[in-house]
């Protein structure tokens, strides 16, 4: 039964989170290349001090440059995607307004630790990205993104032989940590895995438009302290 309180006419907002360097910007570049002829897309990137990821995506020519906007968080990335999403939300809304109608807005989190997740107030669905170079054990270690993001991507599988990681083992660990929620072992060099990713996104988009998709909060990040002594509890 469609949920009348949701507005399926706006774009699906999809968050991409995960540790530094796991391939979030590359995954966004891949999605843009795959979908830009069939979907109307926009991208928001988050960096602490720079707009480097937005500049990377613009230089790759994956979308018109104006469709890629940067939010400089000025603080830990998770603050801007979870605690106070104002800057990101207004960037998403500006993009949706300027390019109305859009089908999907991709929001890249700045690289953070294993416990960073998006607030469901900012995104409708979220992907958590790990890579094989981070080690085969990471998927087993759990955390809200690994356990409960809408999709877990185990990225750069082409590197697995070089770093001694058994991708099937890592995938099985991830599936076990996620109670069967989806996991895709991805490489930009592996067509089958790319098709699985775009197929997953189209499935989410279809259920979003039908009013049948509800954003899930993977849960707060773990309490941690900062160099200045402040403690974030993220309740
Ligand atoms: N071998 C291989 N390398 C990849 C793949 N995807 C991304 N990379 C490389 O991984 C490195 C990091 O990729 P990015 O996309 O910048 O990672 P990121 O998560 O956006 O990084 P931050 O935003 O700095 O946290 C780059 O050198 C990419 O070229 C892949 O499928 N295979
Ligand atoms: Mg990036």
Automatic annotation (TrEMBL):
Main subcellular location: cytoplasm
Range of residues in the leader sequence: none
Family: Belongs to the SIMIBI class G3E GTPase family. UreG subfamily.
Gene: ureG
Classification via Pfam families: cobW
Residues covered by region (Disordered): 211-235
Gene3D superfamilies from the UniProt entry: P-loop containing nucleotide triphosphate hydrolases
Protein's name in the database: Urease accessory protein UreG
UniProt keyword list: Chaperone, Cytoplasm, GTP-binding, Nickel insertion, Nucleotide-binding
Binding, GTP: 18-25
Free-text function comment from the UniProt entry: Facilitates the functional incorporation of the urease nickel metallocenter. This process requires GTP hydrolysis, probably effectuated by UreG.
Subcellular location: Cytoplasm
Residue span(s) of domain CobW/HypB/UreG nucleotide-binding: 14-184
Keyword hit for GTP-binding: yes
Origin organism lineage: Bacteria, Bacillati, Actinomycetota, Actinomycetes, Kineosporiales
SUPFAM superfamilies: P-loop containing nucleoside triphosphate hydrolases (SSF52540)
The keyword Transferase appears for this protein: no
Biased composition (Basic and acidic residues): 225-235
HAMAP family according to UniProt: UreG
Subunit annotation: Homodimer. UreD, UreF and UreG form a complex that acts as a GTP-hydrolysis-dependent molecular chaperone, activating the urease apoprotein by helping to assemble the nickel containing metallocenter of UreC. The UreE protein probably delivers the nickel.
